[in-house]
From TrEMBL:
CDD domains linked: Glyco_tranf_GTA_type (cd00761)
Keywords from the named record: Transferase
Domain of life the protein comes from: Bacteria
Protein name: Glycosyltransferase
Species name: Sphingobium fluviale
């Protein structure tokens, strides 16, 4: 593989950097409306808000969206929907922020994303601080998330510095330089929920600059359960996707092995007393289907659409 060109330092000051926010959403119109409202209330709102959905049913009433928001309707799947969003990011945007529809941003998130990238010219991509994450629990209510964010916003401004270089970023809030993205796209062989698509995308961006975590910008990931893939499909992806990405070269073999073993073990250990919000039986079944496919030499992440 030829060496990649490093990201050039940003010539413009923070206030001149243009920010586009891309949100892929499915079946959560109320949550999407809350995010759009939060983005409009930013101290320095993004120049572009792009909503990538599968049908009008995914959208809140147009009155809740307002004007100046780009709405795209296309194929289902987080990778396909994000790729559609990238294709419609204006050429003059400097930074692209991907966030989940159940992400509740700090009021200063957009302002500090710009400031962070202006202050760190060698960074190609970054995930911000998660004040709370409901993905591994029953989820966080909108009111509690707003309280957490409000309390945070009343505190001192964070440092505009990377905290740690990362192997991959967290898809619920990850920002990249538009220049670093270039022709890179999310892998649409990872369909539907696209498990580990953030790792795959980040690994490709890492060829053009540092991939880091930072406390410069922050928010809450509510972890809303509606609109997610079935347990069988998630379980299958937990086994097959890491092997596929390892073969592709965007996930280290040790990391792939570790997350497969960790998830299979967690599903088996918790099957006796499963959490109400997790289909452990379905995940175990999906794990075994995935392991059987791997034993046959079948590495096909897209098979989940048939399960």
């Amino acid at each position: 593989m030829p060496p990649a060109s490093p990201v050039k330092p940003a010539a413009a000051p923070a206030h001149a950097l243009r920010l586009a926010v891309v949100v892929a959403s499915l079946g959560r119109p109320d949550t999407l409306a809350e995010l759009v409202h939060a983005l409009r209330q930013q101290s320095q709102p993004p120049e572009q808000i792009i909503l990538s959905v599968t049908s009008e049913a995914d959208l809140p009433p147009r009155s809740a969206i307002g004007e100046g928001v780009t709405i795209l309707i296309g194929p289902k799947g987080s990778c396909a929907q994000r790729n559609l969003g990238i294709a419609h990011v204006p050429e003059d945007c400097d930074i692209v922020l991907f966030c989940d529809d159940d992400y509740v941003p700090s009021r200063y998130m957009a302002e500090r994303v710009r400031a962070f990238f202006a202050a760190n010219a060698d960074v190609a991509g970054a995930s911000g601080r998660l004040l709370a994450d409901g993905i591994h629990g029953p989820g966080i209510s909108a009111s509690l998330a707003e309280c957490i964010v409000s309390a945070y916003d009343g505190g001192p401004a964070p440092e505009l510095a990377p905290r740690k270089d990362r192997y991959g970023l967290y898809g619920c809030n990850m920002a990249f330089r538009r220049q670093a993205i270039g022709p890179i796209r999310f892998d649409e062989r990872l369909p539907l929920y696209g498990w580990q698509e953030d790792i795959d995308f980040s690994a490709q961006i890492a060829r053009h600059g540092r991939i880091v975590s930072t406390h410069a910008f922050a928010g809450v990931h509510r972890g809303v359960k509606a609109g997610r893939s079935s347990g069988v499909r998630v379980g299958y992806s937990q086994v097959v996707n890491p092997v596929y990405l390892s073969r592709k070269g965007t996930m280290r073999k040790k990391y792939a092995t570790r997350i497969i073993l960790r998830n299979v073990a967690a599903n088996l250990c918790r099957i006796v007393r499963p959490e109400p919000w997790v289909d452990r039986w379905g995940r175990v079944r999906g794990n075994w289907i995935g392991l059987a496919d791997l034993a046959r030499g079948r590495i096909t992440p897209e098979r989940i659409v048939q399960l």
